[in-house]
Specification:
Chain A is α/β, with parallel strands linked by helices and about 625 residues long. Helix content of chain A is about 40%, strand content about 15%. At the A-B interface, helix 6, helix 7, helix 12, helix 16 and helix 17 of A face helix 6, helix 7, helix 12, helix 16 and helix 17 of B.
């Protein structure tokens, strides 16, 4: 590692030029991409990778390595070029950019070992960076987190959610860089090169700000140093840059966003860039890299939980069982962290806060940064549980989509699902959350109906690698399972069965009690039904469902406190389709309204009496055929 | 209308007290609600309704009436109390708060004529207010838009998206009030009573700010006046208030969020409040209201579009056909407005901007305010088309949920759907957008496959009252329809049929070309299939699908550029389930990656060769049974 500036700066300049050349070549080879968005950040990237960050290109996951998150993910080619330049892989790989066989995708994903979270949906990287910075505190490491944003990206509200949380948490181990290159995709950005617009905003949000010329290597190095020595505040480096910098026909020019050079343009560009190479530089890029220092720290603890402690028939809301189970989990496993968005007294995560306040992160009413920070935490070894009302998790739908793409190890819990919340009305009722999470191929989706299953499934969620969603309910429901009952991801429970069952009713969550009530009512009139608690919706127990269908004359009725599309009914229907079975669905089919929970279950067609009617008419209809 | 302050202020004080009493009584009667969140804003509400706003309680939709949007929707009881006090309905109705039979729901919805957009998911009302303010310009009315936010709510990123857009558009007809009552749901807010935190932020975002005591009626009136006389800037009144104001045991006290008074608490509270009534006030509340002045303006124009002008077999991307059709629509119909989030050169809405720049609203990279502003515009008579890449509409999922609740007349177009976008990779591929929009019962979901159907469906979308989603594709596809072809919402097109069809392939969007290609390949080997273009996914043509199922031995294959859950397959499966038919689904079943469009269609199982294989194996399997 060389630190003498007279030696380093020419080397960094040449590296920046090389990164521009590599970005141009790879995008032209791919036939698409954003070379000019790479050019504006080339000097920053060079300085960051080869004079500032401490990392090991051969061990990107090193727990003490500084992190770099490219929030403006469309500049992926220069990220890849920088890692190639650092020696992480051979430069020739760069020419496979955007090819089906290559992990060097159009926008970065964690398929690459040096990418923590998928970016490309703007305004998310900085939220993940908050999580990464929080994790450094958790593991008592001095690693720093760097995140580079675009100027256009700064219009995303999520950026300001992250700004608030980072300042409140005094994350001085977090350093943002905004690449203010003036030009958005379709026109100049809102604030163009008016650096004061950026400065005022970041200062108002509590950040240390440094306005620099983003093409002046010495200024960039100074800014990183100042950021490093600032205590009690995150720093945002506001770098004035030119889009397309370094090539005369693109520098500061309109209409070059997202356009790869044609072959002849490439030749011209490379020639121009090569002419900028400072001669006489002998130091090699990899030799400039600062290496991370390992910190000795206690190993993570991960004890198994004791069995739950409920009494059959007791009335317990699954949201409360969640809060209690989470408080146990957070004590048993040092990797567990808890994130809230100002509803901890309704989701009962305040109980986890009480026992592990240093692993509880309050985001106030800002769901996007809550989920984004969870993504960043998970990328660094934490197991984050982020929770709020299920309907407000929907605010972070696009983060959930990106977490699915990155297969981040986040655990989301949505409470107050469905019309069963009652009087608060439709704005507080999640009726599309299962549709959201089931849509994502990498998500596990769980929906416990009682206290015991909630506690057991929560423990399974913590162990399961990858994103998990747990749906929870507001009203109290009956404890159905004994404390030694076991559950599996992808399982179901047959709660009632007899050889005479005329139909299977498949319920989940609050509708399980309704199905059991329907079972009782029907039994009184001499009709037996099978009742299934489908607590795992993704994956779903196809064989178990098919077996029930075969045993009950193919009559399947699903009942769910969710809209008709995307939930329990669709999950069952797809699982049994190849068996030739169809499903009769009871679900919420109109915009609901305020009322008492029991009234609403009935009004919107998912109460026990509707189940009874559905069974009766299904049996009658088939008999009448 | 009395304007003498010595007369007005005591009257407004008493009205504020009455609003507190009404909020307390109604929530106690309901057994739930947020009385203390109402108390903090009672003085502001009184001054706003009875000394500032120009409106007619009997004609809330008056196009020149000032608007009030309660962004902190949980304070609904005081909104209802104010309208009752104004004479919109009888005060006795207030005691039906949150009952199933009443439109006075837990949080406001447009079921009430004086509510423009549903609120209750925080941070959305101010986005809608931006749209309302933009509409005043469109119709050349001097009506003003007022929006009241909570302080906790200000942590939502969407608030700052709205702040940017409102300042950039110099919306001086927009006045925000932040009720800084210090206490959130679960704990004090991030900034508590540090008014400078709010002031710095709003000023940095370009707003005129006024910090006042939110319980000082004279100060409130002054602030409204200053806001009204400020030119070129929206104003944010930052009102320092006490949560629970007016009742000694709640004022500024913790742990009162979202709690109705018990009967005995109510009696105590009402007694205290009644003792604050100023005696000798004779002026009646309704007499204080300022009435709106009608403006004469040209009637809206809404001409029918001429027929499309495509040539069979030409290659046209539906996103481009959308841009062209929108440019025609915006000229034909003065109600049409267009909203963008810095992708207008990819969605081709720049063509609409060119012909109607004054009805084109650029939101830069901020999808939440784009959709929220569309909601506000639609509530005031505009027909807004908001568009971006379909995957980025997902950023506004919670706004879309609330628009569905309010059944707002918004039109959303999502371009670049599916893996067929190719090289940009998964972060840019919408594969859950159909799941999102199909989940909402009030949404119409359309998915054209060619230029002609795009243009026709766009015109239908504009005419259809209520929220509509149109899914569009990046790659060029064949023009399939003649220019005189007609389409209906809820329809489908049978593109290929013969008496010998062994199966029906149901495609939509980009997969229609694939299905037609499969038809050709199969025909060459002597197998006939029916091919359906399912351009309307919600509602769906159940009869048409059942007819096809019956005609093709119950063999149905869906093929879609969308994840397996929530899309075309699920839509068809539910439609035909009661007929006893099941569906074989071809869909994207894993997280995709970068590659060429054609490669990806094949890699992820939705190309013509996969359709051929599915037909062959389905026919073989059934034959072998």
């Amino acid at each position: 590692m060389t630190t003498d500036r007279a030696t380093v700066i020419p080397a960094l300049k040449n590296i920046a030029t090389q990164l521009r050349i590599d970005s141009a070549r790879s995008t032209t080879q791919a036939g698409s991409g954003h070379p000019t968005s790479c050019f504006s950040m080339a000097d920053i990237t060079s300085a960051l990778f080869f004079a500032e960050m401490r990392f090991d290109p051969k061990d990107p996951h090193n727990p003490d390595a500084d992190r770099f998150i490219l929030s403006k993910g469309h500049a992926a080619p220069i990220l890849y070029a920088a890692w190639a330049e650092a020696g992480a892989f051979d430069r020739s790989e760069l020419l496979k950019l955007r090819e089906l066989g290559s992990d060097l995708e159009g926008h970065p994903t964690p398929r690459l070992p040096f990418v923590d979270v998928a970016t490309g949906s703007l305004g998310q990287g900085i939220c993940a960076a908050v999580g990464s910075a929080l994790n450094a505190r958790r593991i008592k490491s001095d690693y720093r987190t760097y995140v580079l944003l675009g100027d256009g990206e700064s219009a995303e509200g999520s950026v300001w959610e992250a700004a608030n949380v980072a300042a409140r948490d005094k994350l001085d181990n977090l350093c943002g860089i905004t690449d203010v290159n003036r030009l958005g995709q379709s026109q100049p950005t809102m604030w163009q090169h008016d650096m004061g617009q950026f400065e005022r905003r970041w200062q108002a949000f509590g950040w240390n700000t440094l306005v620099i010329d983003g093409h002046d290597i010495a200024a960039i190095l100074d800014a990183f140093e100042k950021a490093r020595s600032t205590r009690g505040q995150p720093t945002m480096i506001l770098a004035r840059t030119e889009k397309g910098k370094g090539v005369s026909f693109t520098e500061g020019k309109d209409n070059w966003h997202g356009k790869a050079f044609k072959k002849d343009e490439l030749e011209k560009a490379v020639k121009e860039l090569e002419s900028q190479m400072v001669s006489g530089v002998t130091v090699k890029a990899p030799d400039l890299i600062r290496k991370p220092q390992s910190t000795s720290r206690p190993a993570e603890t991960a004890k198994a939980l004791p069995a739950p402690n409920y009494k059959l028939g007791d009335q317990v809301a699954t949201r409360e069982a969640f809060g209690d189970a989470l408080a146990k989990l957070v004590v048993a496993d040092s990797r567990i962290v808890v994130l809230d968005a100002d509803v901890k007294n309704s989701t009962y995560t305040d109980r986890a806060e009480k026992v592990a306040p240093d692993r509880f992160y309050e985001n106030f009413i800002a769901e996007q940064v809550m989920v984004g920070a969870a993504m960043g935490l998970s990328a660094r070894g934490a197991i984050p549980f982020a929770s709020t009302f299920a309907c407000f998790l929907y605010r972070a739908a696009d983060f959930i989509r990106m977490a699915a793409i990155g297969s981040n190890n986040i655990k989301l819990a949505g409470t107050h699902a469905g019309v069963s919340i009652g009087e608060d009305g439709p704005s507080q009722m999640a009726l599309e959350d299962l549709a959201m999470c089931r849509a994502e191929p990498s998500f596990t989706v769980l929906y416990p109906s009682d206290g015991v299953s909630t506690e057991r499934l929560l423990a399974l969620a913590a162990q399961k690698q990858g994103p998990v969603y747990i749906r929870l309910s507001r009203p109290k429901t009956s404890v159905l399972y004994t404390n030694d009952e076991t559950f599996t991801i992808g399982g179901l429970k047959v709660l009632k069965e007899s050889p005479d069952d005329v139909a299977t009713v498949i319920a989940a969550g609050v509708t399980v009690d309704q199905a059991l009530d329907a079972h009782k009512k029907l039994k009184a009139s001499g009709t037996s039904i099978r009742v299934i608690d489908l607590y795992s919706l993704a994956p779903v127990d196809r064989d178990g469902l098919l077996a029930a269908a075969r045993a009950t004359k193919g009559r399947l009725i699903t009942v769910e406190d969710h809209y008709a599309a995307g939930g329990v009914g669709d999950a069952v229907a797809e699982a049994v389709a190849d068996g030739g079975f169809t499903v009769h669905r009871l679900a919420v089919r109109e915009i609901p309204r305020s009322g008492k929970p029991e009234e609403l279950l009935d009004r919107f067609g998912i109460s026990s009496s509707h189940i009874v009617n559905a069974v009766t008419s299904l049996v009658g209809a088939v008999a009448a055929r």
